[in-house]
Amino acid sequence: MSTADQTVRVLLADDQHLVRTGFRVILEVEDDIEVVGEAADGERAVSMTRATSPDVVLMDVEMPGMDGLEATRQITADGPAAPAVLILTTFDRDDYLFAALRAGASGFLLKNGTPEELVEAIRVLARGDGLLAPEITRRVISTFARPGDPTGTAHRGPDADAALAELTPREREVLVLLAAGSSNAEIAATIHLGEATVKTHVSRVLAKLGLRDRVQAVVFAYENGVVRPGG
């Protein structure tokens, strides 16, 4: 991933040419962002990702042929070495949201967001952090809270148990706060530590659990019963 003094390489994947053009116009005025390619469908997004090695892929979901969900799954199959995928989604499509989470997406923005939010989201993902809009974090938690909803059913396996056993009590506390959608600053205030120390704890949690970013930590925590909504 790019660091603060490097250019962030971005690939645009959307089936509408005008939308891609709009994104390009927004992004190319930024000195630290370079659009390295465009794709009009999921298959092209996958091949262009391999050809251009972007840091961040800006991914639409509904595209002809291979959709954005399958493209995300293929792009993120390389694990932490893969580029981050930023999904643009609508608030009322829980099916897309959770499928994309499980496919390995690192960030989500609502399509009614501002250009400034888009630019900042790309920078956040390029730094190696995940991003969920606050509205989407609440949506995730509320969906996991629904009684009888299979999306919210914990299914901890032996691998998850072994990974969780590696966490210290403090790291487990940090994981619980991550699952609530807390920022590093909010975690620091809650457990009375400096932000730098919290960042170290977050990095260790992700490494021990084999997760790419805090977005995947949210999914892991709920799917494996580490936290329960309302608990």
Automatic annotation (TrEMBL):
Gene3D superfamilies in alphabetical order: 3.40.50.2300
Entry's Gene Ontology molecular function annotations: DNA binding
Record InterPro entries: CheY-like_superfamily, NreC/VraR/RcsB-like_REC, Sig_transdc_resp-reg_C-effctor, Sig_transdc_resp-reg_receiver, Tscrpt_reg_LuxR_C, WalR-like
GO BP field: phosphorelay signal transduction system; regulation of DNA-templated transcription
Signal peptide: none
Keyword Nucleotide-binding: no
Keywords of this entry: DNA-binding, Phosphoprotein, Transcription, Transcription regulation
Domain HTH luxR-type, first and last residues per copy: 160-225
Residue(s) carrying 4-aspartylphosphate: D60
PANTHER family in UniProt: TRANSCRIPTIONAL REGULATORY PROTEIN NARL-RELATED (PTHR43214:SF24), TWO-COMPONENT RESPONSE REGULATOR (PTHR43214)
UniProt-recorded name of the protein: LuxR family two component transcriptional regulator
Originating species: Micromonospora taraxaci
